[in-house]
Amino acid sequence: MQPLPKIPVISVEQMRQWEEATWASGKTEHEVIQQVGRLLAQRILRLTRPGDFIWIMAGKGHNGDDGRAIQPHLAHRHVLLTNIDDPRQGLAEFSQRLQNQGLRRARWIVDALFGIGLNRPLNEDWRKLIEAINACGIPVLAVDVPSGLNADTGQTQGAAIKAALTLTLGAPKRGLLEASAFTGRLEVIPEIGLAPCPIQAELNWTMPGDFAGLPPPREVAGNKGDYGHVAIVAGSLGYHGAPVLASRGAQRAQPGLITVFPQASVYVPVASQLQSAMVHPWRAGTPLPKKCSSILFGPGLADAELPDALKDDLRSLWRTSPLAMVVDASALDWLELGPTPDGAVRVITPHPGEAGRLLGLSASAVQAGRLASLRTISKVFGGCWVVLKGNQTLAGRFTGEVFVNSSGNPHLAQGGSGDLLGGYLAGLLAQPDLRQDPLLTVRYAVWQHGAAADYLTETQSNWTVEDLAQWLGRIRP
């Protein structure tokens, strides 16, 4: 299957170059705007139900044209289109219409006031209008970029719309990745009728279609020996749930076999909760299973009294084992700088705080330079693959392309979520076919983890990590 074109993270200038290449090919702005209107309307229809009220607020530029192009396609919705040229009059009309009870219960305000062309500070009247929209209590869907936000820097031009959802067009702009407080959830609508994108970038956006064909189909005569054996070294006193969740995550990847090695102090509670996974208490010098093909090391190893021999085991495996290896949680702090075996897959999955400890930085410093932090961590730890977790998780290494994950939401911020991801990733990497392209497999694991959370958030309001374990790997790209 032909891979889909990559979606680069671009600057405003690069977006302009892409548009100019499109007009030079004979495509008109009107055609693209009409396509954008249809696509935006399709997403809004999925977000709403018949009879819902949609309030479109459109400026006088092309961003406003995009907003106006939505209206004809919102079947069975009540739609108010407010064109705003003068912000003072716009504020008066907005305030007056808010007195209408139907509008106060609007499902969405669609922000199409300013697009990526805004490059000057907003005057007081525009700031007041934007502040009124932000304060009204109606969720906002921003078209391309929240109005008032600099799409290159992520800084406001004095004020900016605080959107719950931003549908950016063609490709994500750099500043949007730095401005989650204003973008809310960021989604990309890529196929808007432009010419093929001429831009290549080191940072790229992930789309579900990137994973068409994963996981690969299995041979009819396949057996469990064909799909790998995962060893999970996890769990200590007070943290017996982590190896159970890691094992559940590995099961969702469907490797042939799973063996869990908890500390002896938690062997009974771990073993009593697992059926298909084998469980053996870890002891110094315990050999890995003979046909082991991947290792997960770290979840639940937070007991302060852990033996030094356990840390020595990790370091030795990291430096010498030819097996695929995923390191997470407390075990990240035990890694040593230096090379790893040629050809051996190494993956670490730090959140910003853990990444900060690896680099001797604060979590906020990591967040301020996420791409550079990922590159540096990979380089000093033997060129390993890095999953830098958080909003818009990054996946990559010290060289080559890095990908921004597009799935997931704040409800993933629950204890045990990362244990599931670690197990699922190790379960995938245990399988020979899925080790051939480690970055694609890593990205797939991260995307599935987030997509399962998105599905659960859409269907129930108070899901748990145990629910996530039920849906992990079940979302079709």
The largest sheet, given as strand count, sense and whether it forms a barrel, is: 11 strands, mixed
> What is the alpha-carbon Rg in Å?
25 Å
Count of DSSP E strands? 17
Portion of residues in beta strands equals: 5-15%
Distance between the termini: 14 Å
Name the helicity range.
25-40%
CATH superfamily of the largest domain: Ribokinase
| Mean pLDDT across all amino acids | 96
CATH class of the largest domain: Alpha Beta
What is the CATH topology descriptor of the largest domain?
Answer: UDP-N-acetylmuramoyl-L-alanine:D-glutamate ligase
Please report the number of helical segments: 17
Helix-strand makeup class: alpha/beta
Please indicate the count of domains: 2
Form type = elongated
| Spatial arrangement of strands, main beta sheet | 1-8-17-16-15-14-13-12-9-10-11
CATH-level-2 architecture of the largest domain? 3-Layer(aba) Sandwich
How would you describe this structure to a colleague?
The structure is a single chain. By secondary structure, the protein is an alpha/beta fold. It folds into 2 domains: 7-199, YjeF N-terminal domain (Rossmann fold, 3-Layer(aba) Sandwich), CATH 3.40.50.10260; 224-471, UDP-N-acetylmuramoyl-L-alanine:D-glutamate ligase, CATH 3.40.1190.20. Helices cover 36% and strands 14% of the residues. The protein is built from 17 helices and 17 strands. The chain has helices at residues 12-24, 29-47, 62-70, 87-97, 101-104, 124-135, 180-183, 241-253, 267-271, 308-320, 352-359, 363-368, 370-380, 417-429, 432-435, 438-459, 465-471, and strands at 7-8, 53-58, 78-83, 108-112, 140-143, 165-169, 185-189, 203-205, 229-233, 257-261, 278-279, 294-297, 324-327, 346-348, 385-388, 394-396, 402-404. It has an 11-stranded mixed β-sheet with strand order 1-8-17-16-15-14-13-12-9-10-11, sandwiched between helices. Strands 3-2-4-5-6-7 form a 6-stranded parallel β-sheet. Helix 8 links the parallel strand 9 (229-233) and strand 10. Helix 4 (87-97) packs parallel to helix 6 (124-135) and helix 8 crosses helix 14 (417-429). The longest helix has 22 residues, at 438-459. The radius of gyration is 25 Å and the shape is elongated. The chain starts with 6 loop residues before the first strand and ends in a 6-residue tail after the last helix. The mean pLDDT is 96.
